[in-house]
Amino acid sequence: MQSAVDATYELRDWECYTRQMVHFHLKNARSWGNERTGADLAAQVDPSFVLGESVAATA
Q1: What is the pLDDT of residues 3-59, one digit of tens each?
Q2: Structural domain boundaries of the chain?
Q3: Cβ contact 41:24 at 8 Å
Q4: Which SS3 state, helix, strand or coil, does residue 15 take?
Q5: Nearest to 29 by CA among 17, 43, 49
Q6: What torsion do the CA atoms of 9, 14, 20, 26 make, to the nearest 10 degrees?
Q7: On the CB side of 28, how many CA atoms lie within 13 Å of its CA?
């Protein structure tokens, strides 16, 4: 199983991961986050940011 997982390592789609992350964040912001925080949480999204291996490794 480890070799099967390792074989897909280079196939990761960081742009897709970022789009999904932003979609999830905005959906939750609209459904409950904005109301509970009193702020527009969409302002937290940096449109030029793309998650990547270097970013994930430092988190």
Answers
A1: 998 999 889 999 999 999 999 999 999 999 999 999 999 999 999 999 988 766 666
A2: 12-58
A3: no
A4: helix
A5: 43
A6: 140
A7: 9
